[in-house]
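Try it yourself: sequence plus 9VF, in.
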Amino acid sequence: MKKKLIESLLNDTDMWVSRTGLLHSIRDLNVSQRFVHIVTGCGETFDIRNSRSSRSARALRLRKFKKPCKQCRVSDLKINEFLQKTSKEIRTKHVRVTEIPSNSINIPTPVHAEKPVVPLSHIPHSQPQKVSSIHVKEKTENKVERKITSLPKKPAASSSKAKDPGFTQSQKDRIVSLLGPDEMISFSKEKRSFQQLEAELINKRKDDLRKVYEDSRENLLGKLERQITDFFVERGFMEIKSPILIPFEYMERMGVGEDTKLSQQIFRVGENMCLRPMLAPGLYNYLYKFDNILPDPIRIFEIGPCYRKESDGKSHLEEFTMLNFCQMGSKCTRETLILLIEDFLDSLNIEHEIVSDNCMVYGETIDVLHKDMELSSAVVGPIPQDIDWGINKPWIGAGFGLERLLKVTYNFKTIKRAARCENYYNGISTNL
Ligand code: ATP
Ligand code: 9VF
Ligand code: MG
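Structure, out:
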């Protein structure tokens, strides 16, 4: 039997499997004679040949994928539908066939927004948000994807599940992802169509990115790291950069054995190594090496990537950036530690509250909160693990997550906007 064209497989399944094996929902599909253009629920675009035997056709036919795309929010129901039903059983869908003359391939996306999009005021709050007068001409070369993205769009695939008749859930998700940090939207009151709203927001975000380019060209995470580095270097702390790939044995020495909960969160690499989930092992090693070399008290700090497997998304990332500063020797009191933390957060203009808590590694901690979110855990040593690292002096230290500091500063709804990530630059969607 002749194999089905990819167009027909897409039509049957309403899903797309990317080269890396991610299962995406489909927001928009356009078929010309030889090409299929796909816009996924997460806003990615793919242009593929309308073939019968490509890798993509095979993946769809065999329902092979590695994992669902998180941004597309593919429901379990849809995944089951995708996995279980044969092509015939799945209800016929909405492929719109559009003739795309080959000479139109370079037409840029229309960029004219008629009205301001979002009813709320656009509070200028950071360099990237400052108003800019720069006008960057739309690039037209090599823009096959962008051209097709500008074609009229159909409602998203999961429309039957949406409560609001006007917008489907995936349309709402797309719109929310396009909002600026200060913007809000009430879908029930919204008069504009999805297409109108999306196009207007896309234009605003393009303007925002151009403003960032004109104003500073600095990445918020990088800039914060530089700011924090200046703060601690000025106060006598030495900047450390220790390895990110570390022996798993270090974690056992930290008291995070294979049987503990934190150990389940560690990304193992090979048999003996792992990605560091914290900065303490590297800092312990430096304290040991610098003892009796540097003047008392020894002050060091590190800022860098840490990795933990996490399930909760609003304030947790699997790849995040930690600051850990510590002091060893004299004046290692709770008061010194709290004063330093207050001074640090004041320098960043971040309101906070200090509470006592407990954790597995350090025992009693001094936690720093902003509303309900933990910004830091701080500790007054010594602790039993010190001896295994050759440390026998008092110490104080604290660990802060930089993305959480950015989330608070810029009022991001999710921490993803502050993360190392390709979907946002300085909190501005890049899926435009
Ligand atoms: P939580 O209880 O919120 O998961 P934690 O107590 O496990 O955090 P610590 O080990 O105390 O975290 O790490 C110090 C700081 O690093 C935290 O206060 C937080 O700011 C940041 N941090 C920890 N885990 C993450 C993560 N997965 N994503 C972003 N930041 C994190
Ligand atoms: C404070 C939290 C053990 C003398 C090298 C420094 C600290 C808490 C840091 C971090 C962690 N600890 N997420 O130790 O400053 O290590 O769990 Si040291
Ligand atoms: Mg903590």
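One thing you can check immediately is this: Residues 278, 308, 310, 316-317, 320, 322, 359, 374-377, 399-401, 403-404 surround adenosine-5'-triphosphate (ligand 1) (CB under 6 Å).
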